[in-house]
Amino acid sequence: MRSTNHTASDPIIQVTDLDFTYNGQRVLEDVNLEVGEGDFIAMIGPNGGGKTTLLKLMLGLLKPQRGRIRVMGEPAVRVSHHIGYVPQDVHINRRFPITALDVVLMGKLAPGKRWSANKAQDRRDAMDALDRIDMADLAQRRIGELSGGQRQRVFIARALVTRPRLLLLDEPTASIDSRGQTEFYQLLKRLNRDVTIVVVSHDLLVISTYVKSVACVNRRLHYHRQAEITGDMLETMYPCTVEEVCPVELVTHGHLPHRVLQHHEE
Ligand SMILES: Nc1ncnc2c1ncn2[C@@H]1O[C@H](COP(=O)(O)OP(=O)(O)OP(=O)(O)O)[C@@H](O)[C@H]1O
């Protein structure tokens, strides 16, 4: 596999003075961000705030009109084999007779990913990726017979099959119930022992328990090196009241919103 000159102490992602515009509409402005090796960062923010766009820039799928983005010290396209990506909408026909293992093997075929001629090794790598996400028992199960949460794990295994150093996930829990969400973030926390994670999420309650840092994206970026979501941050990011963002039951569960409440009461 091609190596980089990047060392563990360098930021794995560095975004400098970045602007991005779609057809004359600026959606990201003056964004600066450093993601360290081993970080587990949540990108939160309102609909249309630019989170997916920023992920696509990190993947090298889009180019900024101004500023610079480096992944492992290089333009992202040069290190795509070190990046695993779980997109927001994974389109897969549930009636298609394809197993979980087949889906994971597709990760070996993705553009820019290394292709090995050794099919037996590929199967071992795919089984290993399924094992990492506790899905090895379901390797031969058809994808259409899995639950939403199980399917999402398979897509993560597909992203992990090339052993990336960086895993980017775009709203991975959108089709998972709240209990499933907790299990899902526990899984990500475990994976974070070996891989740096950036996850776009609207799960404000759950994420602060698991992530190490938070970036709020609403055209501009507000980055916190600690997993602390404050009332000020929410008020800046979300065009609605604190109660709308964090209903009372979230406050009483004692996760993140007690700080929100304090700020709100001041
Ligand atoms: N391909 C595109 N062409 C033109 N405009 C786009 C395109 N993709 C996104 N946009 C616009 O850019 C803005 C940011 O979109 P983006 O998908 O990055 O936001 P987001 O924060 O991920 O939103 P959500 O939470 O709803 O997924 C939105 O106004 C969106 O309409």
UniProtKB/TrEMBL annotation:
Belongs to the ABC transporter superfamily. GO terms for molecular function: ATP binding; ATP hydrolysis activity. PANTHER family: METAL TRANSPORT SYSTEM ATP-BINDING PROTEIN TM_0124-RELATED. Residues 13-250 form the ABC transporter domain. It comes from Desulfosarcina alkanivorans. The keyword Disulfide bond does not apply. Keywords: ATP-binding, Nucleotide-binding, Transport. Gene3D superfamilies: P-loop containing nucleotide triphosphate hydrolases. This is Zinc ABC transporter ATP-binding protein. It comes from the Bacteria. The keyword Disulfide bond does not apply. InterPro entries: AAA+_ATPase, ABC_transporter-like_ATP-bd, ABC_transporter-like_CS, Metal_Ion_Import_ABC, P-loop_NTPase.
